[in-house]
Amino acid sequence: MGKRNSQRKSVASASAMFDSDDDSSATSSSTAPSDLMSIPETEQLQSDQDSLLDQALDSLDEKRSSTREKAFSSIIEAFNSNMQHQFVEKKFATLLHQCLASIKKGPKKASSKEIALAAHAIGCLALTVGCGDNAREIFEEAVRHVEESLASNSDVSKIPSLLECLAIITFVGGNDQEETERSMDIMWRVIHPKLGSNVVAVKPSAPLITAVVSAWSFLLSTVSNLKLNSKNWQNSISYLSTLLDKEDRSVRIAAGEALALVFEIGVIDKYSSESRSASDGTQEEIKPQESYIFLQGLKGKVINQCKNLAVEAGGKGSAKKDLNSQRNLFRDISDFFEYGYSPEMSTKIGGDSLQTSSWFQMIQLNFIKHFLGGGFTKHMQENEFLHDVFDFTPKKKYLSNNEHRMSGLEKRMFKSPNSVLNKARTQLLDKQRLLTEGRKFGHYAVNMVDDEA
User: Fold this and answer.
1) Which domain holds residue 294?
2) Which of 5, 41, 414, 453 shows the greatest Cβ crowding within 10 Å of its Cβ?
3) CA of 286: how far to CAs of 278, 282, 289, 294, in Å?
4) How many domains does the chain have?
5) Counting beta carbons within 10 angstroms of the beta carbon of residue 307, is it exposed (0 to 12), middle (13 to 18) or buried (19 or more)?
């Protein structure tokens, strides 16, 4: 009862927040005590929340940016605390276009904070609707405006939220690998702009580099059918390697995870295959050999860097917890390079545990967890899209629906560090999803790779 009362108080205070900020804001209607007694408590709480969401949506039309900021904060909180399927079904288009109105250049003079909140709200909306026509509409409508806002140098404080938004909408609503790679290129240009007469190179800050590398890695984790552009991969790996020498620990950690993922998805192995196929010594066939040799040298350098970071002594003012996190991560990366073992991680979700056993799973889970914040547990328990992404079925849902659980063979394949079995596991799960009737895929279509093709 205490928790429910506090929820009611938060609804009432939020309504007062909108009213007090602007005289033209919508006001909440009062409910007579006799009416409250006749409505079940859970229904009343849902009714209160629906009313609050409607009111917040109306407040997005207000002139004051501060009013719109508060409205977006309220909407994000509501999407984190519950799966807002009914609200989305009724107000999907309205909410999307209000968010875009704050992001794109137009009559609204949005603050950087408002743009960041609007971008985060779009990401919440995409995760709520899951794969399908609505997710596709979000991607198609939002990606251009997000790209334009990222290219604006007015205030970098909005950029991390815009990067996360771009990552989420591509993850959920992107249909093919070209779209994913385009979004990754947009991210990369934030810290590596294409210089021209009207572009001034600005040294990116450590938080900005971390945000770009994390979002880029998140999308890279969905790509398995790599395009072998040796120059791009050499540049990317070289740059990530330089980040391992930076002073900022968050930059080193983001770069380390990205490099582990790059090697897990088999960049060097693919070049090795091409180099072995070169036989008559023509100039075109020598290039794969040169790329393979260069990448092998880069890998050796990265391995040495990771070994050093795994045993780094604490510097002045270094937080022990952060230092331990770095040591543990780079110890895992070193073991992966030396023995082929990917890290196994168990994440508590209510009364359940979600097991991951690869870099791409860990990166996806950590990114989603960071994006949802306090709403992570709720979404993992009730969000069907995330259940599919992580092949996760909460016990409560399993007991009520008697849905499929992984067999003993699947579990062994899932946990095995052997790269061949990891590939087989990925193929198995992808084919299971493909055969499931009535599901729309979004990014899953990108990941289907048939080694026999």
Assistant:
1) 226-341
2) 414
3) 7, 6, 5, 12
4) 3
5) middle
Which CATH number fits the domain that encloses residue 175? Answer: 1.25.10
Question: Band of the pLDDT at 427, cuts 50, 70, 90?
Answer: low
Q: Looking at per-residue confidence, does 434 or 206 come out higher?
A: 206
CA separation for the pair 311, 322 (Å, rounded): 13
Two tokens at 42?
């859970």
Q: What residues have CB less than 8 Å from 403, skipping those under 6 apart? A: 393, 397
Helix (H, G, I), strand (E, B) or coil at 214: helix
> pLDDT digits over 57-106, tens only?
999 999 899 999 999 999 999 999 889 988 999 999 999 999 999 998 76
Claim to verify: residue 335 and residue 350 sit in the same structural domain: no
pTM for the model stands at 0.75
- Domain ends where: 291, 307, 341? 341
CA nearest 144: which of 114, 194, 179, 172? 179
Is residue 40 located within the same domain as residue 138? Answer: yes
